[in-house]
Amino acid sequence: MDESLLIKKLKRGKEDAYVQVVHDYGNRLLRTCYLMLGSIEEAEDVVQETFIRVFENIGKFRGDSSLYTWVYTIALNLSRDRLKRKSDVPSFQDDQDEWIGNDDVENCVVKSIDREALKKELFKLHPMYMEVIVLFYFEELSIKEITALLNEKEGTVKSRLSRGRNILKGNLSKGGFING
User: Based on the structure, what is the number of domains in the chain?
Assistant: First the structure.
């Protein structure tokens, strides 16, 4: 469905438009929020709150950005608020299906340890670095898309991405997970 038509239907309260927005953005929002928050339960709460806010405030949407950018901005702001309230590094539980496959047990264990180390170090980063890394590497957004999403200058986004990568690489090197 065309985005302008979707927005019109949302503003008129059409149920099929709500379903379409949840279908189009739900999984990606959940993934991004999980990567930022480290808890599937918190990520689900944020995504649910995001959609509630989108549906309650769609009348205020001016169209200065795409609907996607607006929805993601709401989710990122809610995630940031949660991060500000958190004091502990989140704990992680990998899905059991990651252990199923053709890899032998040793490779699965090594991958799991590496993934766990990466997650822990990612969550030690300052949120401004973490969010650009998550958006760039995990959501595969371009610098221009991240710039629009975060309402930042391109140079700022590039700088945060570079700085975040360097901090992450340094921390992983110190922990012996990568070689310099």
Answer: 2
Which DSSP category does 175 fall into? T
What is the domain range of residue 140?
104-179
Domain boundary among 21, 56, 85: 85
Cα 105 to Cα 77, 92, 97, 114, distances in angstroms: 40, 20, 13, 14
Is there a domain that residue 92 lies in? no
* pLDDT, position 84: 79
For residues 111 and 152, membership in a common domain is answered with: yes
Mind listing the pLDDT tens digit for each residue in 15-29? 999 999 999 999 999
Q: Is the pLDDT of residue 30 over 80?
A: yes
pLDDT at 89: 43
